[in-house]
Prior knowledge:
Blueprint: H1 2-6, E1 17-22, E2 25-31, E3 36-41, H2 49-61, E4 65-70, H3 71-76, H4 78-86, H5 95-101, H6 104-107
Parallel strand pairs: 3-4
Antiparallel strand pairs: 1-2, 2-3
Amino acid sequence: MLWAELRNRKLGGRKFRRQHAIGRFVVDFYCVEEHLAIEVDGGVHGTRKTADIERQRILEFEGVRLVRLPARLVEDDMFTALKIISNKFESTPSPAERERDDSPKANRGEG
């Protein structure tokens, strides 16, 4: 469900990859330009807290910012899940947003 909302630059013009390898880990979703990984935590993560904390520590050491979302939130409230993700974007606009801002129409005040 979340992939349908992230793919094709649907969220803030950012490109996400699904099941992306970072070192020895595979994250659920990853945005290269933001160095942002998204993990959707289902029931199994309740028994893997120590391993998840260590994995997150290693990824963050490598410069990856990590957002963990409970699977129930993604299933029940996609709007909030997407808001949490987009709030983690850096302040710089995405390439698509910059392109819109640089368009002649936008520069003439017609957009």
